[in-house]
Write a sequence for this structure.
């Protein structure tokens, strides 16, 4: 890797695109810093505090907002979601890539504060597949599934503002692909100003020395 | 891969950065379309016509220029170098990624004709290493090596106009990295307008149907 600063990667995507499963697999397989989000929503069966989310009361969450301790926060389907700031900044400064899974509205707030953030949007290969996945997940009523599909239709408008559109067709391939995208981004010219300057200066010294 | 159209990748870099060796390894290991350049320079020992280059007379080369059969051509250290157009366009249309190894001046001519071309710049990790590689190659006089280093100093100015700066430190890692960058680029949002439109339309149909 060339650039010393870690890359902040923001992962969004349609509800049902498989973001959660992808993130778990990616973080198991590779050495990323994960920023665990805070939320006021009720844990699903099997979810643990400090693992999937920090599950907070509304009072505690609102206090963090007031203290400026969150990079971003949003209210979504009646609950707060947010990202504690301190951990993310420390990781990036230490050269570690950090991945955040964030709803669409939150992603653009992150980009305002971290202009070099890399925004990835996860999508199933088509809309039928999205509906099938929501239905087969089996944790939601048909009414909620319809709401999520309507929401997806609204979110699709924002896909163009992401840097990459990543199709999650095969979990394993998608995890590899996400990792490749982030690795590749380290070599992007815009992230390597200081290397270019160093190399140019060294070559100029040779020229003068000849 | 998401986008159906192949990506035209243009690889440039300092003389001595190891472009030739990298290209050979990349094309051996992965399924890329290689566009073989035409040149009027004399073959080096071991080089075969139709493999490293098409070795042409000046008369034949100038006839191809006149007929518009070259995407780009340039004169460099007294010889013509150029890229036959037809083969490249056929490969891209068939969804195949094509890689061109082109001098700096030629790379920007390609971008004018193929705005979606991906421009990669190969560099050793530092200038000392560049000089060492030129010296150890042993095929050039010290005078020619100095000329190449002066040339590198001039070319460094153009690094910022490339999309990626790829450090060739370890051959094997660099080959993998080049392949990852090209694979990743297929998911870049700007290359997936038609997918985004299709997905948006499908989701809108669901919305109306509900």
């Amino acid at each position: 890797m060339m650039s010393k600063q870690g890359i902040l990667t923001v992962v969004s995507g349609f509800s049902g695109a498989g973001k959660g499963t992808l993130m778990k697999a990616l973080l198991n397989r590779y050495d990323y810093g994960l920023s665990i989000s805070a939320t006021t929503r009720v844990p699903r069966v099997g979810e643990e505090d400090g693992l999937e989310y920090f599950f907070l009361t509304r009072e505690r969450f609102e206090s963090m907002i007031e203290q400026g301790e969150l990079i971003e926060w949003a209210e979504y389907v009646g609950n707060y979601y947010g990202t504690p700031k301190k951990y993310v900044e420390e990781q990036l400064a230490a050269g570690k890539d950090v991945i955040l899974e964030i709803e669409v509205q939150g992603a653009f707030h992150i980009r305002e504060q971290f202009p070099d953030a890399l925004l990835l949007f996860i999508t199933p290969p088509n809309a039928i597949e999205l509906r099938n996945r929501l239905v087969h997940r089996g944790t939601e009523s048909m009414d909620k599934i319809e709401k999520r599909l309507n929401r997806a239709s609204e979110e699709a408008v924002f896909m163009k503002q992401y840097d990459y559109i990543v199709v999650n067709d095969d979990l394993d391939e998608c995890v590899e692909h996400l990792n490749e995208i982030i690795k590749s981004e380290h070599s992007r010219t815009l992230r390597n100003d200081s290397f270019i300057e160093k190399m140019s200066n060294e070559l100029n010294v040779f020229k003068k020395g000849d």
